[in-house]
Amino acid sequence: MEIVYQMLLAAISSGTPLLFATLGGILIERSGIIQLGAEGLMLMGAVTACMTYLQTGSLGITLLAVCGISLLLGGVHAFLSVSLRANQIVCGLAMTLFGAGFSAYLGKPFSGIPVPRAVPKLDMPWLESVPFIGRIFAHLDLFTWFSFVLVIALHLFIHRTSWGLHLRAMGDNPATADVMGINVQVFRYGYIMVGSILIGLAGADLLLVYSPTWTEGMTTGRGWIAVALVIFARWNPIRALFCAYFFGALDMLGFRIQLIGSEIPSYFLKMIPYVVTILVLMFLGWRNRNKPSGSPESLGIPYIREQRF
Amino acid sequence: MAIEAVPKPSKMKWRSYRIEIDSSKRGSSWWIPFVSVLLALIVCGVFIAANGMNPLPVYKKMFMGAFGTAYGLTETLVKAIPLLLCGLGVAIAYRISVWNIGAEGQFAAGAMAATAVTIYFPNMPGLLIIPTMIIFSIAAGGLWGLLTAIPRTYFQVDELVTSLMLNYVALLALDYFVFGPWKDPQGMNFPGTPVFTAAQSLPVLGDSRLHLGLLFGIIAIVLYGFLIKYTRWGYELRLIGANPEAAKHAGIRISRHILLVMLISGGLAGLAGMAEVSGVTHRLMYGISPGYGYTAIIVAWLAKLHPAGLVVSAFLFGGLIVGGFSVQTIGLPSSISEMLQGAILFFLIAGGTISKFRLRRIR
Predict the structure, then answer these.
(1) Nearest CA to A96 among A8, A37, A46, A35?
(2) Neighbours of A124 (CB within 10 A)
(3) Which residue is closest to B176 within chain A, CA to CA?
(4) What are the phi and psi torsion angles at A41 (to 5°)?
(5) Which of A211, A271, A303, B312 sits CB 3.0–4.6 Å from A174 for a disulfide?
(6) C-beta atoms of A94 and B161 within 8 A
(7) Are B338 and A97 a contacting pair at CB < 8 A?
(8) Chain B positions in Cβ-Cβ contact with residue A40 (cut-off 8 Å)
(9) Mutating which of B51, B155, B334 best tests the A interface, going by the most A Cβ atoms within 10 A?
(10) How far off is chain A from B350, nearest CA to CA, in Å?
C-alpha cells in the first residue's frame, strides 16, 4: 500500500508540468493551430522563473514574469501563424530552437544555483482521515491544485459553454465559424496566448516544484512528450489529466527501479518515457486506423477569409 | 431607404487592406535569407545589449573567429561538413513533406556504428576499415530513420514526435556506451572510447583539421542535385512534394517513397556521424554534437532545399557555430549561436510568407 501511495504522489508531482503543457497545447490546437514550440516555451518559462525568483524572491512577481514572457512568445507564434499564415510546423520548430538557445544564454549565470522551494503547500491535515485518497490530497502544492481546477474548468469551458462551442467550431471549420460571426483571427490570437501561458507555467512548475536547479535543456523532451500527450488525450482536458500522470509515473519508474538496486543501467531506464510514447502512439494509430483521430479538422491549415486554397 | 452596405472608409481604415496570395509571383525572393539573417542579428543584438554587453564587438568577435583567420575558416569548414550531410538528409525528407527532425539521433547512431567497427574489429586491414565504417554508419543512421518512417507509414504516427523521441533514445544510448562498456580504460575516466588508430581515421588536408568528409558532402550534394532533376525517382519525389493527392492518383506508392527517403535521410546523417568521429574527434565521446541535427533543419530551410543553397547555408551555419565558440573567450556562453539560429528561422518563415502574399488596398 505504501509503495502505491508513493508512486501516485510521484506520478502527480512529475506529471503536473506535463499536464500544464498538455492543457496549453489542447487549447491552442482546438483553435486549429499546431503547437510544436512547447519545448522552447517550457524552457523559457523555467529560465524566467529561475531568474526572477532568485533575484526578487517573490512568487507573485515570478509568475507575472513567466506569464509576460509566455505572452510575448505566444504573440510571436500567433503573429506568424495567424496573421502571416506561415507554416505552423516550422514556426513551432523555430520557437523550440530559439527557446532552447535563448534560455541557455539567459540561464548560464544561474546554472547550478539551488532554487528554494517557492510554491507553498496547501496543508489540509483533516483530509488525512479520509482513507487512502485523503493522504494524497492532504499535502499537495498550490500549483497542483491549480492544475486540478484548470482541468475541470477547461473541460467545462470547451464542452459546456458557447465560447467553447465557438472554439471547437473554429478548429474544425473556421470558415463556418467566421460566417457565424466569430472573429477567427482575434480568437485564435487569444487562445494561442492563453495556451502559451499555460505551457510557460509548465516550465515554471518544473523549476519551482520539481527540479532543484536550472540546468541547460532541463525539460529533456517533456515539451515534446506534451505534444504527444495532446494526441493521446484526443484534445480532451480530462483525458489529459490521466495521460499526464501515466507519463509522470513512467518518468519516476526509472528512479524507483534504480533505488531498488536493479542492474539495468540508468541510461536505459531514462529511455522508458520516450520509447513508451512511440509505442503508445503506434498502438493508437493501429487501433484508430479507420477512425477519425479526434483532432480538430482544420488543424494546421491557415485560415484566410474569402480565399480558397 | 437604402441600407448602407459599405462602411465609411474613415472609420474602417484598419480594415481597408487585405492580404492575399500574389499569383503573379513565381518562386521566391532571393533577398529574404539576407534580410532574415540581418534582422535576427539586430533582434539578438537587442537581447545581448539588454544583458549588459555591447553587441557589436560580440558580433565582430564571432565573425572574426569564424571567417577572419585561416584557422577559423578551416574550422568553419569542419563544422560545415556534418551540417551539409545532415542538412541534405533533412532536405530530402522535406521534399515530400516528411518532417524529419531526428537528424541528431541519426547522427549519433552513425557515430556509434562507426565506433563499434573500430572496437569490435580493431585489426581490420587498413584499406577495408574506412569503407566498413562508412557502410555501418549509413546502415545505422538509415535504420534509425526507418524507425521513424515505419510508424509513420503503417501506424499513422506523426513523424515529428517519433523522430524527436528517438533523438533522446540515441543520445542516451551514446552516453551509455561512452560511460560504460566502451570507455577507454586508459582514459583517466574521460567519457570517451579509445582514440582511433591512423587507419581508422579519415585523411586530413595538410596540417589542418579539414578531413575527407568534405568530399562525402560534395559528392552527396551533386548526386542529390542530379537525382532530383534527371531521374524518374526524383521526378516522383517532386510530384509528391508538389501535390500528394495527384501523385497518389498517378499510381505513385507514397508509403514506399517515405520509407526510402527516410532511409536515405537517416543514412546521410549517419554518415555525418561517422565523418565526425573518424575525421575530427577520433573517438566517440560524450556530447559529440553541438546540435548539428537541429541546426540542419535551419540549414535546409535557409537553402530552400536547393543543392547549391545547401552548400552556402551549411558554410554559414558552420561559421555561426565556430563564432559561438569563439565568444566564450570573452566570457559569453556559446548558446548565443543557438539563439541566433532560432531567430534566423523565425524571420525566414515570416519573410517566406510575406514574399508570397501581397497587401492590397480595398477601395
Answers:
(1) A37
(2) 13
(3) A267
(4) -65, -40
(5) A303
(6) no
(7) yes
(8) 342
(9) B155
(10) 6
With a pLDDT cut of 70, the percent of chain B lying above it is: 90
What is the Cα–Cα distance from B3 to A292, expressed in whole angstroms? 45
Beta bridge partners of B18: B360
Q: Tell me which residue has cell 488525450.
A: A233
Note the pLDDT of residue B11: 44
Amino acid found at A23: L
- Report how far apart, in Å, the C-alpha atoms of A121 and of each of A138, A141, A186, A204 are: 9, 4, 37, 16
pLDDT reported for residue B16: 60
- Amino acid identity, position A274: Y
Backbone angles phi, psi at A66, to 5 degrees: -65, -45
Contact yes or no for A216 and B335 at CB 8 A? yes
Residue B190's pLDDT is 84
pLDDT of residue B207: 77
- Residue B1 pLDDT greater than 60, yes or no: no
User: What are B357's strand-pairing partners?
Assistant: B21
Residue A84 is nearest to which of B162, B339, B353, comparing CB atoms? Answer: B353
User: Considering only CB atoms, which chain A residues are within 8 Å of B101?
Assistant: 93
The C-alpha atoms of residue B169 and residue B260 are separated, in whole angstroms, by 22
Q: Centre a 10 Å sphere on the Cβ of residue A122 and count the other Cβ atoms it contains.
A: 16
Set of chain A residues whose Cβ sits within 8 Å of the Cβ of B179: 267
Are B160 and A89 within 8 A, CB to CB? yes
User: What is the distance between the alpha carbons of residues B105 and B292, in angstroms, rounded to a whole number?
Assistant: 10
How confident is the model over B123-154, as pLDDT tens digits? 888 788 999 999 999 999 999 999 999 999 99
B151: chain A residues, CB-CB within 8 Å: 278, 281-282, 285
Question: What's the CA angle centered on B92, arms B87 and B93, to 5 degrees?
Answer: 100
Which of chain B's residues have a Cβ under 8 Å away from the Cβ of A102? Answer: 47, 335, 338-339, 342
Q: What are phi and psi of B242, to 5 degrees?
A: -80, -45
Average pLDDT, chain B: 86
Shortest distance between the Cα of A41 and any Cα of chain B, in A, equals 13
Ranges B136-140, B271-275, B354-358: which has the least confidence: B354-358
Grid cell locating A17: 508540468
Residues from chain B that touch A282, judged by Cβ atoms under 8 A, are 151, 155, 157
Q: Give the one of A80, A104, A288 whose C-beta lies nearest to B350's C-beta.
A: A80
Complete DSSP assignment for A72-105:
HHHHHHHIIIIIS---HHHHHHHHHHHHHHHHHH
* Measured torsion, CA atoms of residues B173, B177, B181, B182, in degrees rounded to the nearest 10: 160
Measured distance CA(A53)–CA(A35) in Å, rounded:
28
Q: What is the mean pLDDT of the segment spanning A232-244?
A: 92
Q: Which residues pair with residue B338 across a beta bridge? A: none
